[in-house]
Amino acid sequence: QVQLVESGGGWVQAGGSLRLSCAASGRTFSSMGWFRQAPGKEREFVASIRWSGSPTSYADSAKGRFTISRDNAKNTVFLQMNSLKPEDTAVYYCAAASISAGTYNYWGQGTQVTVSS
Question: Does pLDDT of 90 surpass 90?
Answer without folding.
Answer: yes
